[in-house]
Amino acid sequence: MKQLGFIGLGMMGFPMAGRLVAADISVLAYDVVPETRQRFGAEFTGARVADDLQAFSACDVVITMLPNSDIVDATVHRLLSALPSGALIIDMSSADPVRTRALAEAVGAAGKRLIDAPVSGGVSRACAGTLAIMTGGDPADIERARPILAHLGKAITTVGSIGAGHAMKALNNYVSAAGLIATAEALIAGQRFGIDPNVMVDVLNSSTGKNNTTENKAKQFMLSGAFNSGFSLALMAKDVGIAADLAEAVHASMQLGGHVSEMCSRASELLGKDADHTEMYRYVQPQ
């Protein structure tokens, strides 16, 4: 690998790209926000920062970490003319798996390669390099990407063909969102009955109700009122929506998924685009 490109320096992308710089990989970084690019260049002096996508002509591998499929598609199509033949694009965004398959066809027709490798674990694990990474694509392309991904995550699991990683990410986030909502509703009901919600969390974590929210979010971000986990409610709503759409596309029953998706969308609209996903705790409280 001559040089690694990294596009998308958001809350997750910024520390992920930083870890690659810290691993002595030659990184060329880009974000659409000039101030973010400047901040990354100042914090990680070993990296180069690009002002536009045409600067990626020397990159034979590029990671994209972007908000949604619309932005991924637009960015990759603009990027294709700059990349050398045989270049590999690793899309680590949370994207629509059906659209990922269509994008992979366009990338292949241009003489380049694409895999999807979305992540789970949040900002803290992005900083620590312990993300869970789920990959989809040609096995040879995934093996080509694996040494790079190893700097970002400890669990790297190939889940299927192109798009399977994005499908798995959306389904994972649906399960996570359902657990979060169930936990919030249970805590509020218990508190109104007179049970200390902190005690409830302790009991849940020693019982069959234990889940990621009870272990890592309930006390830390919900009961504390901090609501600053680093993952937005809008993104959770987007991911659960992708999972619900996927179930419909493959004719799978997901009745609960549709309800969870509707709740997340309504909460995001009510609480605003900057709301943290743990603020679902506020949303489910009856007035």
Oligomer: single chain
Strand tally is 9
Per CATH, the superfamily of the largest domain is NAD(P)-binding Rossmann-like Domain
Overall pLDDT confidence:
96
The top-level CATH class of the largest domain is Alpha Beta
CATH topology of the largest domain: Rossmann fold
- How would you describe the shape? globular
Run of helices and strands:
EHEHEEHEHEEHEHEHHHHHHH
Runs in which pLDDT lies below 50 for 5 or more consecutive residues are none
Radius of gyration: 20 Å
List the helices and strands and how they pair.
Elements: E1 4-7, H1 13-22, E2 27-30, H2 34-43, E3 48-49, E4 61-64, H3 69-80, E5 88-91, H4 97-109, E6 113-116, E7 119-120, H5 122-128, E8 131-136, H6 139-149, E9 153-160, H7 164-193, H8 197-205, H9 212-216, H10 218-223, H11 233-249, H12 255-271, H13 280-283
Parallel strand pairs: 1-2, 1-4, 2-3, 4-5, 5-6, 8-9
Antiparallel strand pairs: 7-8
Helix pairs in contact: 1-5, 3-4, 7-11, 7-12, 11-12
